[in-house]
Amino acid sequence: MNVTMYWRRLRRSESAAFWLFLAPWLAGFLGLTLGPMLFSLFAAFTRWNGVGTPHWIGLQNFRVMFTSDLDFWPSLGHTFLYAGARVALGTVLALALAAMVNTRIVGRTFFRTVFFLPAIVTGVPLFVVWSWMLDPSGGVLNYLLGKVGIQGPEWLASSTWAIPALVLMSLTATGGAMIVFLSGLQDIPLELRDAALVDGAGWWQRFRRITVPLLSPVILFNVIMGLIGSLQVFAEPYVMTGGGPEHTTYFLGLYLYNEAFWYSNVGYASALAWVQFLVVVVLTVVVLRFSRRHVHHLGS
Amino acid sequence: MALIPLYVPLCIAAFFFVLPFLWMLSGAFKGPGGVTAFPPRFWPSHIDGRNFSTAAAGVSMWRYFGNSLFIAVVSTVGTLLSSSLTAFAFAHLRSRARGPLFAVLLATLMLPPFITLIPSYAIYQQLGWLDTYLPLTVPSFLGVGCAFYIFLLRQFFLGIPKELFEAARIDGAGRLRQYASIALPLAKPALITVGLFQFVASWNDFFGPLIFLTDSSKFTLPVGIRFFQSLYQTDYGTLMAASCVTVAPVILLFLVAQKFFVQGIATTGGKT
């Protein structure tokens, strides 16, 4: 068989085309995702400063983490607290906003735009302006609270209020979830709502008995995506609190960044990264399990 | 009429959603020292641009603007190329490996960046890529971090009638021609959505530039603002000027192309 014939056959073969089209992604996946993942799994069992040779130390990183590291458990606990509050409140707010802008209210396009915008326009500039707004003495939030006769808290400077402050800020970035809810709401058959109306159900009953059950797959989706995102939070505490006060906002992401890039405990940081990953996976599975009894699927 | 009570919560929420942006804008134009006034003035008494000159002095925010723009444009081009090629393979080319590989692709959606980051950092170090823009742009040409985009484009490609490709094949068009002259033009809305998301993601990215760049003249805007924070401490006027410059292009993109952002987000929400 000569070369041209071979080439012609290869060209006609669909499987060959598949692999050619996939080649860039496959190279990236093997070289920059799977490869590094396996290497960091290996590094989790070593002592390594990132440049020299890693020293195999077995389970010692994990033993230290779970028993003698004074930062690990508080960091994990505070990460859970932040993620839990952010996802719970954010989901409720997103659903409420979606339900309100799904009505025939005048100006709903304006409200949708306003609620969605901060989900896209986000990042460091917003974290900086929020730090300033949350300033205990010169900030606009405490000024407004003072206007209505409330002595505002110390926000980011207080170990009690730092996490609530970060959660409060995150609520304004909930527009993505609102859009997902909105498209879910628009899929609910109008006949169901009309039938309930005929039966004399009030708005709360319709919301509780029809909307929420029919929306439950979308709620589940938003909760899982929210958890995955907020368990990995990094830039907010890095820019706004540096992990303080008193390590209250020293979340897992910040902790392992410091271990890797500040203290050069790269082996230990790899172990932390795997623990973070497993926490995300386990929580997702738990939520999926729990939801199996509570999520309704319309039709199939 | 029954809807009028809704305006109370809607307006309160809208106020808090918009407040940071108004505060940023008014802080930027209050001039030096204007931001420390207490009680705070909601609107500057006159427009003062001196905060912008401060932020443009030294290693200027305009330089950061250029750096950010360069990285965002290059990584968007890379993302569009790699994601559309990959999505086309997953949508229209048959192979026994297709199903399992697609499952692998979806699994990477859940992967925290930290888990691959440390070894990737070591790889870039070996390649001599640290403190260059290569780690921030090259991976996008290889579809790294593009799982969501690939998924979105694949859904779109699946919606293109098979007959169109059949007809092209009868006319002698190869796979590459079918991809370039049928799939890509028809998928323009989805490609715009992907391009916008990647541009904004790259523009807003803090973590990547923070880790890979050390020379302060190479910083992007988000890392630059952080750098300004260390230079100007609590001189919020200067910080707000740089912040305004950072968010302005994204706000503009959002207002012009809101439809595409909404479609992109809504597609993820389990319309499967």
How would you summarize what this structure contains?
Chain B: Keywords: Cell membrane, Membrane, Transmembrane, Transmembrane helix, Transport. Chain B: It is a multi-pass membrane protein. The complex is a heterodimer of chains A (300) and B (272). With 300 residues, chain A is mostly helical.
First-last Cα distance of chain B: 37 Å
Give helix % range of chain A. over 70%
The secondary structure category of chain B is mainly alpha
Q: What is the alpha-carbon Rg of chain B in Å?
A: 23 Å
> If you consult CATH, what is the topology of chain B?
MetI-like fold
CATH superfamily of chain B: MetI-like
What sequence of helices (H) and strands (E) makes up the elements of chain B?
HHHHHHHHHHHHH
Topology:
The complex is a heterodimer of chains A (300) and B (272).
Chain A lengths: L2 H10 L1 H30 L2 E2 L7 E2 L3 H9 L3 H30 L6 H13 L3 H10 L6 H8 L14 H10 L3 H11 L4 H9 L4 H29 L3 H6 L11 H10 L4 H26 L9
Antiparallel strand pairs in A: 1-2
Helix pairs in contact in A: 4-5, 4-8, 4-9, 4-11, 5-9, 9-11, 11-14, 13-14
Chain B lengths: L6 H23 L20 H7 L4 H32 L5 H10 L6 H14 L6 H8 L5 H12 L3 H9 L4 H12 L1 H17 L2 H6 L8 H12 L3 H33 L4
Helix pairs in contact in B: 1-13, 2-13, 3-6, 3-7, 3-10, 10-13, 12-13
